[in-house]
Amino acid sequence: MQQQLSEIQNIVEDVLALAKQKGASQAEASMSKVQGIAVSTRLKEVETVEFTNDGGLGITVYHGKKKGSASTADLSAKALALTVEKAIEIAKHTSEDDCSGLADKELMAIDYPDLDLFHPIELDTELGIQQAIAAETSALNIDPRITNSDGASYNANLGTKVYGNSHGFNGGYNSSRYSLSCVVIGEQNGDMQRDYAYSVNRKANLLDSPEQIGKDAAQFTLDRLGAQKVKTCKVPVLFHREVASSLFSHFINAISGGSLYRKSSFLLDNLGKQVLPDWLDIKERPHILAGLASSPFDHEGVKTQDREIITGGVLQQYLLTSYSARKLGMQSTGHAGGIHNWLVKNSGESDQAMLQKMGTGLLVTELMGQGVNIVTGDYSRGAAGFWVENGIIQYPVHEITIAGNLADMMQNIVAIGGIPETRGSVQTGSVLIDAMQVAGD
Q1: How far apart are CA 225 and CA 185, in angstroms?
Q2: Cα(263)–Cα(418) distance, rounded to whole angstroms?
Q3: Range of the domain at 170
Q4: Residues 211, 139: contact at Cβ < 8 Å?
Q5: pLDDT tens digits along 227-285
Q6: Fewer Cβ atoms within 10 Å of its own Cβ: the N or the C terminal residue of the chain?
Q7: 206 shares a domain with 116
Q8: Quick one: signal sequence residues (predicted)?
Q9: What are the start-end ranges of the E strands in 97-145?
């Protein structure tokens, strides 16, 4: 893969040189190549086996403030030359935009660390099949109420990513990603429920065992059997850590440059203002070794760096690409392509202690629908989970809707659990909000 990385960097260098030769004032190119397998089983029989060996190159050229982009999956010299010509032709016919162009040269990641993102193993379909079947077998043997399987899947991907531009930057790295998941269906007295469990890691040997994943999928499904509706009420809501990160994904959207310069954010003009409780901090740490969201540079070659997003509840940082930064009269923060390992401060409680703190209310373990308005902050989503009284789970609930306003919800976070969810770009514990509207019967 190291040889592949060098070869791709050479292709990017050649394409950039060709763009300059053709008259582009600036140019940038990115190329990726992924090799992988995806195996799925159902009821312990193989359903699909897919092999991936994909690659593609995209180039953007600038003629002054005019921009043109083109891409190709054909990496022959003739196809690459044609792609450059198409991008230049497109640029000639676009309107000028004073904010277009490469990120500033001084922000480039000229020196960047090895983040330990690449842990290759042989792409073995037999291993994948064994892992998926073992997960299903484990789930189906837990309890006779687990009556069916919605399948298990194993994925292994080895990738190379390179980005270069006419500032002279040409960087790249290899990465790996492995995952195993299982979904099962349970039935009790005519009530059918489904749930799942999964594991994901840069290192294949650090995935949870298929037996554990199957056991978890079955137990989560069993816990949902006998679900009821609840009466419409206004109560505290505890977002389980597996869904709590979605709250922060809306927050990320609201402080991203695109939403801000379009004036389509409920957090417009809140930089330097209190937006979360004064005990809450959020740190971004893009250089965590083997982190799932770690990256030495963003999609524009801007070097990533540690950032304090929230300190004492105060918003310290917008998330800006070079384009949105120019629109706002600011500087890129290295967020082209997304965030890099957010660490949300917890308040120290265990999940059980948070249930006690909530007293009577709703524990949410699943969210459905897209009823979130980033412009106003209005929040309304379908939910399922458990009804809690006196800090003790009473019964599962489903077919309910929870509603509020994100600005109020964020300010009214009462506690964040001490066990974080680590399988995504936002690492947070369960989040307790003091009151939300719950619509049921």
Answers
A1: 10
A2: 35
A3: 2-224
A4: no
A5: 999 999 999 999 999 999 999 999 999 999 999 999 999 999 999 999 999 999 999 99
A6: C
A7: yes
A8: none
A9: none
Q: Which residue's entry shows tokens 């983040």? A: 115
pLDDT digit string (tens) for 34-69?
999 999 999 999 999 999 999 999 999 999 999 999
* 207 and 299 share one domain: no
pLDDT score, position 1: 72
Q: Is the distance from CB of 337 to CB of 296 less than 8 angstroms?
A: no
195 and 260 belong to one structural domain? no
Number of domains in the chain: 2
Give the least confident one: 1-5, 75-79, 162-166, 313-317.
1-5
Contact between 334 and 301 (Cβ < 8 Å): no
- 224, 244, 259 — which closes off a domain? 224
3-state secondary structure of 72: strand
- Look at residues 311, 294, 254 and name the one whose alpha carbon lies nearest to residue 427: 294
Instruction: Fill in the amino acid letter for 415.
Output: A
Using a 10 angstrom Cβ sphere, with 0-12 exposed, 13-18 middle and 19 or more buried, the burial of residue 57 is buried
pTM strictly above 0.85: yes
Residue 191 backbone dihedrals phi, psi, to 5 degrees: -90, 125
Within 10 A of 185 (CB to CB), how many other CB atoms are there?
A: 16
Q: Alpha-carbon distance 243 to 27, whole Å?
A: 40
Nearest to 404 by CA among 426, 372, 431: 372
